[in-house]
Design brief:
single chain, 174 residues, alpha+beta, Alpha-D-Glucose-1,6-Bisphosphate, Chain A, domain 4, eight-stranded antiparallel β-sheet, 3 helices, globular
């Protein structure tokens, strides 16, 4: 795990990684299937492609519905900003030019398996967290720190779930 930044304007990031004993093709089938993600996340409740899209490609949009005990419920539209099969899948939330968050899976083949990373960056666009910071600017660093820790835990759980799926007999493409 690695994370940087203490203030929202610093564009803080989190990255987690795991080694998966499965080829990148199998891992790609999992990380690029947005419909799978709600089952791997406590916060993401549902996700669906927009504009009659059925698979990832740069420029494709999808809507995600989220729920968080402290933040409530919300919906966002995300834009695929990187889609390189077996290597990288990334999306920007709300505005691809000025996103509230960017999320990315990176895959690298290694010794018959895959090194999987999940990375995210807050900002520069405003998000729900921005409103909490507006209300309590003196607590900005704590607010950002707490959210980064939540993301770290969730991302760690996600890559572990992907590892288990990819390594299991039920994994996609097994």
């Amino acid at each position: 795990m690695e994370w940087t930044g203490a203030r929202y304007a610093d564009l803080p990031t989190v990255e987690v990684r795991t080694r998966i004993e499965a080829p990148p093709r199998r891992v790609w089938d999992l990380v690029s299937d947005i419909r799978l993600m709600p089952g791997l996340s406590a916060e993401l409740q549902s996700v669906a492609w927009l504009d009659d899209v059925t698979e990832p490609r740069v420029g494709a949009r999808f809507v995600g519905r989220n729920r968080h005990e402290s933040l409530g419920e919300w919906e966002t539209t995300s834009y695929v900003v990187e889609c390189e099969p077996f290597r990288a899948f990334a999306w920007a939330v709300a505005d691809p030019e000025h996103p509230s968050t960017v999320w990315r899976f990176g895959l690298e083949g290694a010794d018959g398996g895959t090194e999987l990373t999940q990375w995210m960056r807050m900002g520069p666009g405003r998000s729900g967290l921005s409103f909490a910071i507006d209300r309590m600017p003196e607590k900005e660093q704590k607010i950002v720190f707490v959210r980064l820790r939540e993301f770290e835990r969730s991302m760690t759980d996600t890559v572990e779930a992907i590892r288990k799926l990819a390594e299991s007999a039920e994994g996609v493409g097994a």
